[in-house]
Amino acid sequence: MLSKASYTLLALLALLALPVVSAERVLGAYIFARHGDRTAKVLGKTRLTDLGYREVYLTGSSYHGMYITNSSASHIQGINAEIVSQSQISASAPVDTVLQNSAVGFLQGLYPPAGSSATQTLRNGSTVEAPLDGYQLIPVSVVSTGTGSEDNSWLQDTSNCQKAIVSSNDYFASALYDSMLNSTAAFYQSLAPLLNRTFTASQMSFKNAYTIFDYLNVASIHNASSSSFPSSDLLTSEVYYQLLALANSHEYNLAYNTSEPVRAIAGSLLAGEVLTALNNTIATNGKSKLTVQFGAYATFLSYFGLAQLPAVSVNFTGIPDYASSMAWELVTNSTDSFPASSDISVRFLFHNGTLTGSAQPTVYPLYGQPTLVLPWSDFVTYTAKIAVTSQAQWCNVCGNTGGVCINSSSSTASTSTSFSASAGSSKSGISRAVAGVIGAMVTLAVILGLETLFLLVGGFRISKRAVLSSQTRDSKDESKDESKDESK
Ligand SMILES: *[C@@H]1O[C@H](CO)[C@@H](O)[C@H](O)[C@H]1NC(C)=O
Ligand SMILES: *[C@@H]1O[C@H](CO)[C@@H](O)[C@H](O)[C@H]1NC(C)=O
Ligand SMILES: *[C@@H]1O[C@H](CO)[C@@H](O)[C@H](O)[C@H]1NC(C)=O
Ligand SMILES: *[C@@H]1O[C@H](CO)[C@@H](O)[C@H](O)[C@H]1NC(C)=O
Ligand SMILES: *[C@@H]1O[C@H](CO)[C@@H](O)[C@H](O)[C@H]1NC(C)=O
Ligand SMILES: *[C@@H]1O[C@H](CO)[C@@H](O)[C@H](O)[C@H]1NC(C)=O
Ligand SMILES: *[C@@H]1O[C@H](CO)[C@@H](O)[C@H](O)[C@H]1NC(C)=O
Ligand SMILES: *[C@@H]1O[C@H](CO)[C@@H](O)[C@H](O)[C@H]1NC(C)=O
Ligand SMILES: *[C@@H]1O[C@H](CO)[C@@H](O)[C@H](O)[C@H]1NC(C)=O
Ligand SMILES: *[C@@H]1O[C@H](CO)[C@@H](O)[C@H](O)[C@H]1NC(C)=O
Ligand SMILES: *[C@@H]1O[C@H](CO)[C@@H](O)[C@H](O)[C@H]1NC(C)=O
Fold first, then answer.
1. Is 178's C-beta closer than 6 angstroms to any atom of ligand 4?
2. Ligand 5 pocket, 190 CB below 6 A?
3. In the prediction, which pLDDT does 15 show?
4. I need a labelling partner for 242 at 20 to 30 A (CA). Which of 109, 210, 265, 477 fits?
5. pLDDT in tens, 277-294
6. pLDDT 10s digits, 57-89
């Protein structure tokens, strides 16, 4: 029996055993985020809604509290706390209305209007305040990965990677897909009264699992009147979650497959971009500090698979909700102002859906490792196995030979890793030309915009970014400066 005194003693000991406030510091970070609430893909001309704008803004505000605010424990060392410094931050999104606008909304939360702090004094002594209560301009550059992704319902429409297209198409020829298609046929047909204004009877199947879920999910959020949402009583929460589970399975299998890593090309490109950006932070002793990129859920799924996150939780085989985000942080316990890379580690965080207030994303272990902080050298080793970091490697892994790959095909691409060795072993024997046709059939609403056409004809370029923001679109001089910065 313990006396009251010994309980008190135990409590005191427990207090003492708490870790001392660690001197851990964040030196830099990379954020990859999904857009907010939008209109349904199948209806075309997809756009961000006010709700979606609010979601990305809130998420951006939470990251402001985490990485930008001085008093935060995860404040990025040396990052400007109030007025943005363009050299410390870079932001990007594909050419896509929903993703570009989401990036802008997020950045408004990340660096909110600075009011009277955002003033300049001119030579003649008068002061000027920036418009909109000191609004801060942050250019959003364009990544060629994922152009028009929110207008396309099939992820490989935007990848232009031949072996990835073949690999994803293999899913539609698999026994797994067949059995799902058969076992859910009656279920999808039973939803005809909900779907028949937009889908034909033959389209009401597992084949369109995501597009159907997306269409009904959007309606369940926005369509208020019974005339805009006939038979809405059929969409019980049971039906909703079944549609979601089916869409999750469908999309995860298209985005990732253990035996065919090339299917996850979008995740490989992201892994390469993260590696390059964080390495650049280290190489410049922290001159560039924060990168923000917006992209589609399929890129999350591809990355989750490659980083072995589904082994941590089955949640990672499911589509992240709107305004979800993941972040890779460079962290250290060293007291050196900018430590050697041997004293730097990487921590991975993810949050499903909108971050609000002081909520922070959760830390997860990467690459099946037992620790939550991965020494930089280990992070580089593991990431290199899944990442695509150069045009030549991309051409080699994807098997593309035209456009920007014309000359790379002859190069031996000796830098390629185990990744490309097992890449794209298409067993189904579907030819590339046919694969493209199947892809197009799967797509309900192929909006072949000019950009897509350009990519198909002109080839696909990784890593090259052009500045195209609402702020600097017209300024050629500034884009030049920006690209100079990027090549540093
Ligand atoms: C943040 O910290 C820096 C350096 O310690 C200081 O100069 C700056 O005024 C602080 N900003 C705010 C908003 O507290
Ligand atoms: C100071 O210069 C600015 C910009 O040229 C001009 O708009 C403003 O009227 C000037 N103010 C005075 C007091 O001369
Ligand atoms: C990977 O893809 C192949 C071919 O599409 C399929 O047979 C296999 O079941 C898939 N593996 C998993 C784990 O889904
Ligand atoms: C699915 O149904 C079709 C036609 O009903 C049948 O030919 C096929 O064998 C079935 N596939 C499976 C995996 O049950
Ligand atoms: C859709 O199905 C409902 C219920 O079966 C029917 O009343 C309606 O006319 C159908 N609408 C169209 C466009 O076919
Ligand atoms: C929701 O409303 C939009 C716009 O009125 C309409 O196009 C769409 O078909 C509706 N969705 C459903 C599931 O009825
Ligand atoms: C990191 O940057 C340094 C210096 O630019 C370069 O030598 C090295 O190859 C880079 N490492 C990776 C993994 O990209
Ligand atoms: C998985 O998702 C559920 C429900 O959203 C959540 O409660 C749980 O914590 C998640 N698991 C992990 C490991 O994140
Ligand atoms: C996010 O939450 C949705 C349910 O809202 C779930 O289906 C999905 O698996 C989750 N994704 C991740 C990556 O946690
Ligand atoms: C810093 O030290 C704390 C306490 O020992 C530890 O939990 C944490 O993982 C360390 N962080 C890094 C980046 O090594
Ligand atoms: C390919 O290489 C040849 C000879 O080195 C060069 O003339 C040509 O411009 C290159 N083509 C492309 C698309 O890079």
1. yes
2. no
3. 42
4. 265
5. 999 999 999 999 999 999
6. 999 999 999 999 999 999 999 999 999 999 999
Which numbered atom of ligand 1 lies nearest the CA of 70? 1
Which tens digits make up the pLDDT trace of 369-381? 999 999 999 999 9
Do 105 and 60 contact (CB within 8 A), yes or no? yes
Identify how many contiguous H helices and E strands the chain contains and give both numbers.
18, 11
Ligand 11 center–CA 156 separation, angstroms = 28
Q: Report the range of poorest mean pLDDT among 249-253, 258-262, 413-417.
A: 413-417
Which of 70, 79, 111 for a ligand 1 pocket mutation test, highest count of atoms within 8 Å of Cβ? Answer: 70
Please state, in angstroms and rounded to a whole number, the distance separating the CA atoms of residues 378 and 187. 47
- Amino acid (1-letter code) at residue 266: A
124: Cβ below 6 Å to ligand 2? yes
Alpha helices, DSSP H, located in 400-461: 418-421, 432-442, 450-458
Residue 432 three-state SS: helix
pTM across the whole model: 0.84
Tell me the sheet residues that pair with 373.
Answer: 347
**470: Cβ below 6 Å to ligand 3?**
no
Span(s) in the chain for CATH 3.40.50.1240: 25-115+129-153+263-479
The angle formed by the CA atoms of residues 380, 384 and 390, to the nearest 5 degrees, is: 120
Residues in the chain: 488
- Please give the CATH topology (third level) of the domain spanning 25-115+129-153+263-479: Rossmann fold (3.40.50)
Helix (H, G, I), strand (E, B) or coil at 422: coil
Tell me, using a 6 A CB cutoff, whether residue 275 lines ligand 7. Answer: yes
CA 224, 227, 228, 232 dihedral sign is positive
Instruction: Give the list of residues 6+ apart from residue 342 with CB closer than 8 angstroms, or none.
Output: 375, 376, 377
